[in-house]
Design goal:
The chain is an alpha+beta fold and 384 residues long. It is built from 8 helices and 16 strands.
Length: 384
């Protein structure tokens, strides 16, 4: 029996205001984009115009074009988008995503999914996600909160009983996506970035290089008749060299970890040349919180002397880093310490901080005691 298709579309009246504002902004964006392109074309064909203004317009139009693409994507997301989930009889789960005239189909690893849930983010709720061993896969943010919750319940019923994911320890020793183990013939195993990811990065950098070098060629052509343009050639040439070096690094270089018994060795490989950067005998997963309250997670290889060596970092879910640390610990037989606090530990810290605040307010005088009573009433109301 096939599970009915689950459809998610944009929801809420507020999306029309967002789309209307962005549509008006895109009209002004189109005028600015056309004027900047006309100005650059006039300068390249006639050589007339201040060089400093040309360089500024060149940089401005790059950022301006990217902003227009993002705004157009948001408009399509608000008005003309859809995510559809289909579970077939043979156990395949497909997600069909549409954004304007563009369509994308992807298969979800149904047999690896532990459960479906809706992330708790603000009042409207977060995305519908699937939890897999060592990582969380986002499915959709469309629809309202109730639709996503009902979809999670329906998918969990179709999924059947599965083992509950362990949170947060012990983490499954599973190599997450983006990494690959390589076994040389006469050396220790290596942990390297996945070749597929490197190919996609190389393609993106190649397109950037093609754009920069194309503009550089046009600027050199204009500089042959106007020597003042050679300053712009030097500036754009330096940018082209930086992009070219980045492309060469993606094609022929990489940072890799050599997995030895009770030791991790970080080394850099480029065009057949190998250089050792450092070694470590332990791993730790840490969390940092910036002034805006955003969390960043970092998996580090610690050593007796010197700063820790960064293995990987993430600004979202630490599950993949936790799995990578567990995998490295099991593979190289090194200790792994997870320093990311659990939700219970976070609640305990908040309770302790609130208790210290109450104590300080109580000792501050009548006004402080009145503020402490307000805090107590608010806590009592929440508990009720």
């Amino acid at each position: 029996m096939t599970t009915p298709s689950l459809r998610f579309r944009p929801h809420g009246v507020g999306r029309f205001f967002v789309a209307g504002f962005l549509s008006l902004w895109l009209c002004a964006w189109s005028a600015g984009e056309l004027f900047a392109l006309w100005f650059l074309w006039t300068f390249l064909t006639t050589g007339q115009g201040p060089l400093a203004v040309v360089v500024f317009v060149l940089l401005w139009v790059s950022v301006w074009s990217w902003g227009g693409i993002v705004a157009l994507t948001l408009v399509l997301r608000c008005l003309w988008s859809e995510d559809r989930l289909v579970l077939h009889d043979d156990g395949r789960l497909e997600c069909l995503a549409r954004l304007g005239p563009f369509r994308r189909r992807r298969a979800l690893p149904w047999r690896e999914i532990l459960r479906f849930r809706v992330q708790a983010e603000a009042a409207r709720g977060g995305a519908l996600v699937a939890e897999l061993p060592g990582r969380t896969l986002e499915i959709t943010r469309l629809g309202n909160l109730r639709q996503r919750q009902e979809a999670a319940e329906q998918l969990n019923r179709a999924l059947g009983p599965r083992p509950e994911p362990r949170e947060p320890n012990p983490a499954p020793a599973v190599l997450p996506a983006g990494w690959q183990e390589v076994s040389p013939s006469f050396d220790s195993p290596l942990l390297v970035p996945h070749p597929g990811l490197r190919r996609r990065q190389s393609l993106a950098m190649g397109l950037v290089c093609l754009l920069v070098w194309g503009l550089l060629a046009l600027l050199v052509g204009g500089a042959l008749t106007r020597p003042a343009l050679w300053v712009g050639v030097l500036v754009l040439g330096a940018l082209g060299l930086a992009c070219g070096w980045g492309l060469l690094w993606l094609l022929f270089g990489r940072r890799e970890w050599r997995l030895e018994p009770r030791r991790l060795v970080l080394q850099r490989r480029f065009a057949g040349r190998l250089r050792t950067l450092g070694e470590a005998r332990a791993l730790q997963l840490t969390e940092t919180i910036d002034s805006d309250g955003d969390r960043c997670y970092r998996l580090e290889a610690t050593r007796s002397a010197g700063r820790p060596l960064t293995v990987d970092h993430s600004g979202q879910d630490p599950a993949s880093l936790r799995s990578l640390g567990a995998w490295l610990a099991a593979r190289a037989h090194v200790p792994f310490e997870d320093r990311v606090p659990t939700e219970a530990q976070r609640l305990e810290r908040r309770t302790a901080e609130l208790q210290r605040l109450r104590q300080q307010l109580t000792e501050a005088g009548p006004l402080g005691r009145w503020a402490a009573q307000l805090i107590d009433r608010d806590d009592a109301g929440r508990s009720a």
